[in-house]
Structure formats: structure tokens, C-alpha cells
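User: I'm designing a mutation panel for Adenylosuccinate synthetase and want to avoid disrupting the core. Could you give me a predicted structure to guide residue selection? Please restate the sequence first so the numbering is unambiguous.

Assistant: Good idea. Sequence first, for numbering, then the predicted C-alpha cells:
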Amino acid sequence: MRTAQIVIGLGFGDEGKGITTDFLAHQNPESVVIRFSGGQQAAHTVMIDDKKHVHSSFASGALRGLPSYFTEHCTIHPVFLLNEREELRKKNGNVELHIHPLAKVTTPFDVWHNRKNTKNLEHGTCGKGIGATMKRHESPFKLFAVDLIGPRSMLIEKLKGIANYYGCIKGNEIENEIHYFIEAIDQIDWNISGYSYLESFDNLIFEGSQGILLDMDHGVFPHVTYASTTSKNAYEICKLLKIDHIEMYYVTRSYLTRHGNGWMSNEKEIILKNNEEETCTFNEYQKQLRLGDLDYDLLNYALKLDEAYIFASKKNLVVTCMDQTDEKFKTEKLNTKFDAVYGSYSPYSRDFDKMM
């Protein structure tokens, strides 16, 4: 029986999806890990013994040795991908990456627009070009993964069109950016393949991005992401592959987090312990990682929302960072029943203890 395991964040991101994916990869070493939303903006941190890696352009099973697959709902940036590939190789991670032909490609011009546009900065951006890429794909100026292996002359013309679409830089600067971009493309052996690649795996691990409360249809606008962060996309792929046995892994920290601007309930100053390896700290574009007490009403809202998109055979709750505050997680405050509840007592530990 083929099985899918879907990892979803219940909050505003930074819940611990990376270590949960790594936990499942450790249990199921013959699996493939599938990213079905977001892209190079992810910062999913995994630590195995003395090795640490922040997964962005590769899925969070890569350090464990599993291959990665990016669906058409994802974005890719060849320069960021190339840089991370070299990091993973040094750590003996698996750099096998398969990409759907219709995955969206981020260009240097998308990154420029994300970082320079005043409206983007007010609403919040990670500075990796994700929002600009998704917005651009609502226009005729599209660029897909399959274009990277198509005729080079056509790729160059499409890149010129995207540069002019933004009106961001002129003349020789455009030529220089395109030249650098294509240099990166040429250093990558592209595996552009449809969903038939996934049919050879008996277990598929779907790794979500951000959290349900940032979903473009359900978050508090305008501080949302240009992605469906529920299990919607993953479930559609499961139906396409005729996988009926689906296990959900809903992830939350033991406290609330939000990186960047936007509404957040229960925000307060919290003194954290044992968080020396925290990845999502201050950066130029998202600013501070904000904290607050866990909002159980929000957790129940997110769970109820995701039920609208998926029918799961089994549901699990994963609570991370339980050693960082003195607050105790109370499962009785959740109305949804779970088949199991797991707790992680170190923010990047691969060791989980079943709580219930």
C-alpha cells in the first residue's frame, strides 16, 4: 500500500516543519520528499549529529540522504539552488533534485523588485523574489523550469522581457544579470520531470512551507504569502497518483511565532531557553522574529480549515521547542482528536517522544 505523509504548519511559519520532515525521513529512508508550496524562501533547519543544514532549494530529507522533488506550485532560483547544492555536497547530503516542468523560475529581476519595492517592504518580504515571481506569473511574462532546458535564444528573450516588465535596470546591466544567471543554469544538471517520477516510491513525504495562517486565501490580507499553505496542493497530487492512505503531521511550536509584519494574536515578550541554533532571527527584510503565547483558538481554526481540503487516514500533532519556555502545552484545549501527539524537546533534534 502506497502512503503519503503530509507535514503542515499550523501557525505563521517557523513551526518546525523541517525537523518533522527529517524525523519522517529517518523513519522511511526509501522515500522521496516533495515540496508542494513556496520555494527558496524556506529556512527549514535540520541537525544530524554535528551536521547542520538550512534547507531552501532542497527538501528537508536531503541531509538525511533522500531525493527532493519540487512541484509546479513551487518556485526555484538557479543561483540560490547552485549555492545550496555546493553546501549540501560538502555535508554529504543528497543533491538529487527533480523539478516539475511548470515550476516557476525566479530571476534576478524578481529579487530586485522584492527588495526595492516600497509596498513589498511594508507588507513584508523575505527578499528572495517569491512574491514577485508569483505575481509576475499572473501576467504574460512567465518563466517555467522547462524553459531552462529549452532553446537558449528563447530563454534570453524571455529574461529580457521580464527585466523590461519591471523596468528595473537598463542596458548593459540587464545583459550582465542575464549572463550571470545563465552561468548558474549551465552548472546544473537539470532533472525536469512530471509526476511519473514519483510513482516508483511507496512512501511520499510532502513538506509544507510557511503555515496555514499565512495562506493567500485564508490569512489576514495583505500580510499573506503567494501560496496555498494548506494541504490542498499535496492532496490533489495524492489523488492524481491514486494514493488513498494519507497521514497528516500538523506542526506547532509550544508558543506562537511570526517573522515579519502582520496581525498576530497574543504577542508578548518571551524569554527563550536552549535556542542558540535558532535560524529565523532578525534579517534585513523580514526584521524580527516575533513571539507570543500559543493561541489554541487559532490552532483549532487552522485545523478546521485544513479539513476542508483533505480526507486523511490518520492525523498526528507535533509540538516542537517544548524546552524553550516554561509554558505547558495543553492538548485538552484542542477540539480535534489526533491519532498521536509528538513532542520535540530540542528545536532541531531528530528525537521525538510520543506524548499520548
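For picking mutation sites, this is relevant: The radius of gyration is 20 Å. Residues 159 and 178 are 7 Å apart (CA to CA).
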